[in-house]
Every structure is written in structure tokens, then in C-alpha cells.
Amino acid sequence: MSLWFRFDHRRGEFRLQAAGEVPATGITALFGPSGCGKSTLLRLIAGLERCDDGEVRMGQDCWQNDRTFRPPHQRPIGYVIQEGQLFPHLSVRANLRYGWKRAGRTNGTAAGPAFATVIELLGLTGLLDRRPGQLSGGQRQRVAIGRALLTRPRVLLLDEPLAALDAGAKRAILPYLERLHRELALPVLYVSHDGDEVARIADRLLLMEAGRIRAAGDLSAMLTRTDLPLARGEQAETVLEATVDGHDADWHLTRLRFAGGELSLATGTELAVGERRRVRILARDVSLTLSPAADSSILNILPARVSEIRPLNPAQALVCLDLGGTPLLAHITHKSVAALGLEPGTPVYAQIKSVALLV
Ligand SMILES: Nc1ncnc2c1ncn2[C@@H]1O[C@H](COP(=O)(O)OP(=O)(O)OP(=O)(O)O)[C@@H](O)[C@H]1O
Hints:
The chain has 359 residues and is an alpha+beta fold.
């Protein structure tokens, strides 16, 4: 069941006019610069902030329109913010049980993951007897997400749940979110202004700017849309869904197949053959040649065609490539565009260093 919303909301100088949909499964990232209204939108959906001109529906179930306003505790949501707000005097087990008990009151008989499943999915087994003060920031956030899940929500609203964590703790918690995503069929609306986080876990993107939804769509398509700022930033990247095809044991390389070809990847960890993985290629790690170099150290040399060229700044251009139907972004200099005579339709070879691929 998908979540649908529309709001026209003023707060002082700030005006939020946004409508959108969160599909029934997968992670939808609400992404945009600081101050654009992401948290406000989440709070409006949760009913934590009241807006007179708004509508929220989950499937056929109306949470808000011009006649109805259900308060937050009557909306079947799991809500987690930066600092997960656990009860400091209760153990992890008791914090989780609180979520479990609340489920009966708010969501009636709604189906949801079992207590043991949540503990296992979030790796909380060894932490159950500790108090929040005895946990790391990342562990606390895992407990907070577990508690929210145990309320058996019909949608999970996460407001920058990893923002207070350092890079290492973030890296450690992301695999848990990826697991939740794979194993629970629950819509998640995930607020973030961290492109790295979003590229790793989101399926869809709602791109927000100055109180409005500027664009919405599948992550891969949104990242490579040349009319959006995402393709223009320093961290611009292409995200591909690929399947692990095999290993080259002699050289510790993994082969991945995607719709537009094959890639070799130097992974630190062994990936299982047949496994689906997300491959991320930064636009600045892609270089172009007119013929396939036979004497290059670069392992991934893929035939492509230039589909579009746009200026990025006085020195650099954004080149969008077509790899047999799959778009790929490259940031190269105007000097190189001129030297290679690139224009839409030019056949080229895209070179991607195997160490530059991220999964
Ligand atoms: N209590 C308040 N009173 C008046 N204006 C506010 C209040 N809280 C936030 N704002 C303004 O509302 C706008 C949206 O804020 P909001 O917190 O939703 O943005 P955000 O996109 O979530 O930002 P961030 O990524 O920094 O958390 C901002 O311009 C902010 O200055």
C-alpha cells in the first residue's frame, strides 16, 4: 500500500508546497539541501506538525484531509530521528518491548515482523541487557529503528537517522538498513542530505528544493538526469544494478554483469556468484577514448555512445553516455571534449578503473 501526501504549508517566511507518493515497498529518499523542508514534510506526514491545507492517505485509509486530522499516535507510523530517543532508564529489551506493546494499541492486529526477527535483523542479540548509555551511537540507532519496527508500522519515517554518527559508524549500520530493506516489505521514507548514503540504500528519490518536490523517480534515472543538480556535483555518480558473474582468483577480481556490459571489480570481500549488487561509478572516475586502448592499466573499457554534453564550469563538461541502453555519466575537461571532437552520437570507449567501482 503506498502513501500519498499533498501539503500547502506556511511557517513564517518558509512555504512548503509539496505532493508526492511513497511506493508500497522499497526505500524512498527525501533528498535536498539543508533548509529545503525535508524534516518539515516528514513531520507533516506524521501529524507532528499541523497544516490546514493538506491531505495524507495510506492506500484507502485517510489520515488527513479538510475534515479529518488524525493525531500522530493514531497514524500507523514508525518514526526515528537523529538521536533515537530511547528511554535511558530501560534496558534495550525493555525499550524494544515498549514498541511491541504500543503496537497493540495503535495498529490493532496489523501484521509485522516478530520480536525475534527484528532482533536478528538488526544484530541486537548481544545488547538486550544493556542500557542506552552503554551503547555506541550506531547501536542506539539500531535499537531505535528496531523499536519503531516493533510498533508494526505501515510506513517507516526516518529523519536523518545516521546524521549524528561518524563515517565509520555510518558504514557499520548501513548493511543493517540494507537487510531490512531486502527482508521487510515496508515502505520507508528516508530523509537525508548525504548523497553517499542515498546512493547506497535508496530505490527512489524525491528531490526537494526550497519547499517543493523538484523531481521524483527511480534512483538510477534521477542520478543521471542532466537537468538536475545531482549529475553536476563533485559526487555525481551512476548507480548500476549488477549480478556477480564470477571471480578471477589469480588476480582477486570479481566480474559483474549489468544490462550494458561487464565490469571487473577489485573487492576486498568475496561476493557470491549470482548475488545482485549495486555498483557505483563516480563521474570523475570515468575517462573517454576514441579507440579501445590496448596498453592501458584500466581494466574496464566499455563501448558507448555520447548522448549529451553540458557545460559544468569553465573547465569541465558533463558527458552523458549510452552503454547499450544504460546511461553513464563522465566529468571531463572541455579541452578533452574538443581534442576528441565529441558531440552527441560520437562512438567512444568509457574507461573505468576497477578500483574506482564501489559496491
Ligand atoms: N520552528 C521554526 N520556526 C520558523 N521556521 C522554521 C522553524 N523550523 C524550521 N524552520 C525553517 O523552515 C525551513 C525548513 O526547515 P527543515 O528543518 O524542514 O529543513 P530540512 O530540509 O530538514 O533541513 P536540514 O537538512 O538542515 O535538517 C527552513 O528554512 C527553516 O529555517
